[in-house]
Specification:
The complex is a heterodimer of chains A (about 110) and B (about 120). With about 110 residues, chain A is an all-beta fold. Chain A contains no helices and eleven strands. In chain B, about 0% of the residues lie in helices and about 50% in strands. The chains are: A mainly beta (about 110), B mainly beta (about 120). The interface between A and B is medium-sized, with 26 and 25 residues.
Chain lengths: ~110, ~120
């Protein structure tokens, strides 16, 4: 079956670095996405990985290891506004009726403290 | 910057009533998605359109839910009759396609409360 695991909650301090892990077991793999979702709002796109390695975008970086079924999102220089839920989603080309369906994890709720 | 539009933002209804949600995707996006997100969980795909055709509705409770995208642009999701368990955020997303770096962009969502 399809399984995407993330920690439920994390707490970090303003100005620090935090790493949010995601492990997945899916029928197939055609890319991994990270989204940020503030309470009561829609998810917003953060990053996309399809090849192994690190993708850096400002204060946010995302890493992928396809052989390990593992990804992480790294947030640097944390700000209070980074307090949100972070969703890991895997694009699976073989699951369900549609090609390349996006399967979401339950999200990691990050609380940034002063 | 182009955005996905949804309305209404909030809807309160009583069980057994009918509700409808509207979505207007980013211009030029051929693929449109309706998701349901229960509090504390990730979005779950209900239905996916490629232009005006449904390509996946395997998780859509078809006895009460229906969705259409008649002209391949905007879309409507309907629930009739609504049940207490339907209370959730209903998100619409769109993308150029479904492959490569095609990213799904989400609208602001409709928060449904069924009393």
């Amino acid at each position: 079956g399809q399984n995407i695991d993330q920690p439920t909650e994390m707490t970090a301090t303003e100005g620090a670095i935090v790493q949010i892990n995601c492990t997945y077991q899916t029928s197939g793999f055609n890319g991994l996405f990270w989204y940020q979702q503030h309470a009561g709002e829609a998810p917003t796109f953060l990053s996309y990985n399809v090849l192994d390695g690190l993708e850096e975008k400002g204060r946010f970086s995302s890493f992928l290891s396809r052989s390990k079924g593992y990804s992480y999102l790294l947030l640097k220089e944390l700000q209070m506004k980074d307090s949100a839920s972070y969703l890991c989603a895997v694009r699976d080309p073989y699951y369900g009726g549609a090609a390349n369906k996006l399967i979401f994890g339950t999200g990691t709720l990050l609380a940034v403290q002063p | 910057e182009a955005e996905v539009a949804q309305s209404p933002r909030y809807k309160i209804t009583e069980k057994s009533q009918a509700v409808a949600f509207w979505c207007d995707p980013i211009s030029g996006h051929a693929t449109l998605y309706w998701y349901r997100q229960i509090l504390g969980q990730g979005p779950e795909l209900l239905v996916q359109f490629q232009d005006e055709s449904v390509v996946d509705d395997s998780q859509l409770p078809k006895d009460r839910f229906s969705a259409e995208r008649l002209k391949g642009v905007d879309s409507t999701l309907k629930i009739q009759p609504a049940e207490l368990g339907d209370s959730a955020m209903y998100l619409c997303a769109s993308s150029l396609g479904t492959s490569g770096t095609d990213t799904q962009y989400f609208g602001p969502g409709t928060r449904l409360t069924v009393l």
